[in-house]
Design brief:
This protein is α/β, with parallel strands linked by helices and 270 residues long. Helix content is 41%, strand content 23%. The strands form 3 sheets. A 6-stranded mixed β-sheet has the order 2-1-3-12-4-13, sandwiched between helices. It starts with a helix and ends with a strand. The protein is globular. The chain is built from 10 helices and 13 strands. Helix 2 crosses helix 9 and helix 2 runs antiparallel to helix 10. It has 2 domains: 152 residues, Periplasmic binding protein-like II (D-Maltodextrin-Binding Protein, domain 2, 3-Layer(aba) Sandwich); 106 residues, Periplasmic binding protein-like II (D-Maltodextrin-Binding Protein, domain 2).
Length: 270
């Protein structure tokens, strides 16, 4: 009789665990931080898909690259969607955070945009070029300038390169490091600017149609290092609602939205 009672208790415990797992997905709410464009817009499409599964997605918009990560680390956000893998690696290293990628979603090509100078050919000696000042994106911008023959980086320069790693600068260009969100706002004050995809889109610019030069989006180096990712704090990778969000972001509905809205400025990677 005691064995039967124990068995019943064990079965009750197992059933309660499984029913709890189901409840953690359906009827739950997840809060995700994102850049305004295109990330929040893409999430709002996924939001419709999640609603059909009984999951509420709350999208919190940010205008910088720091708060979305610090809020995931603190637990104020369940996830974020704004960064690429190289930025995340550097952020974790610099800040001691424990944030991990759970899915690769899209790629935004970097572009060189005209400010006071209309073309690369017209660029004069001593011209000013602005680049994002956050580690990995500055390196990315410098690599794009190098690809155009404007500068040459040291042989050992990597994804954390800065202006200190410029080995050759034949035009004596002044490389001005600016917070990424300010690049489009200060475009009229510089000759050229290398602008992050999301901020370019937010300002009505498209790297594929408006830039003087863009990254080689078919390059494996580019795709493997600069694809934008959905991130959570380590340990939350198996959250059922997060897994449903991954499925929603990789859905045909989201892919069709990206391809139709951004005209090549955002490229789905699924």
């Amino acid at each position: 009789m005691k064995k039967i009672v124990k068995l019943a208790l064990v079965l009750t415990l197992v059933l309660s665990i499984f029913s709890g797992c189901g409840a953690s997905k359906k009827g739950s709410t997840i809060k995700v931080g994102a850049s305004v464009t295109p990330h929040a817009e893409i999430l709002n499409v996924a939001k419709e898909i999640l609603a059909e599964k009984g999951i509420t997605l709350e999208v919190v918009e940010f205008s910088d690259y720091v708060q979305p990560n610090t809020n995931v680390e603190s637990g104020d956000l369940d996830a974020n969607y704004f960064q690429h893998i190289q930025y995340l690696k550097q952020f974790n290293e610099d800040r001691g955070t424990h944030i991990v990628s759970v899915a690769s979603i899209h790629y935004e090509p970097f572009g060189i945009f005209a400010g006071k100078t209309a073309s690369l050919e017209e660029l004069k000696d001593g011209a000013i070029i602005s680049v994002p000042n956050d580690g990995t994106n500055e390196a990315r911008a410098l690599m794009l300038l190098e690809a155009q023959g404007l500068i040459k980086l040291k042989e050992n320069a990597d994804f954390s390169a800065t202006i200190l790693d410029i080995a050759e600068n034949p035009k004596n260009l002044v490389i001005k490091e600016i917070e990424a969100a300010q690049l489009t706002l200060s475009l009229q004050d510089v000759d050229l600017a290398v602008i992050n995809g999301n901020y370019a889109i937010q300002a009505g610019l498209n790297a594929t149609t408006d830039a003087l030069a863009i990254e080689d989006k078919d390059s494996d180096v580019i795709k493997n290092n600069y694809t934008n990712i959905l991130c959570v704090k380590e340990g939350n990778e198996k959250n059922p609602a997060i897994l449903e969000l991954v499925n929603a972001l990789k859905s045909e509905k989201v892919k069709t939205f990206i391809e139709g809205k951004y005209n090549g400025a955002v490229v789905p990677m699924f």
